[in-house]
Fold:
Amino acid sequence: MTAPKEETVAQLPPKPVRILLGLWLLLCLLPGFAAMFGFNFVPTTEWVSTSSIPGLAAGLSTAALMSWAILREAPTCGSNIIFGVLFSPLLSYFLGKSAVVIAVPMILATVGGHHVELPFTVIEADQYGDRRCRSPIEFQGLPFFFDRVCGFSKDFRQGLTPGSRVVVTGRGTSLGVFAESLRRVE
Structure:
């Protein structure tokens, strides 16, 4: 007679841990949702350089956590796990890093922001853009997707060359701004 098979039930983490993981996921996804819905948020280059080490740590820990979760479930997933093992750590890294580098100043600008004017250096202002961002003006030293503002007139953009300085005006803090208007700096 064979011994009965023992079946284990996956244990969920305690409720406080699940709440913290849910909040972290929300924080990671916030910058993507903001970009998707057309909010012109631009972090300052100073904040991006200051937060690079904490952003790296957050990205690596998020990627490690996601890799652990995927490999833990690998035996039950079969061949579908290949996509998760290959691509989710990279995606998780960028989401975790954006939580620190983008979401923190975005939340601070939303909650405690006021009218600010922040200087930026233009890299490019003569592209057409895409359907989500028409007439972009791209800035130097900022992370992808948050290195541009959209929707400015061709007349304004024609006077901008690489290296031009502009001041972005809008609601924000010294860490970043929701762009409402731009003006050239002479």
About this structure: The chain has a mean pLDDT of 81. The chain has one domain: 15-184. The CA atoms of residues 143 and 162 lie 17 Å apart.
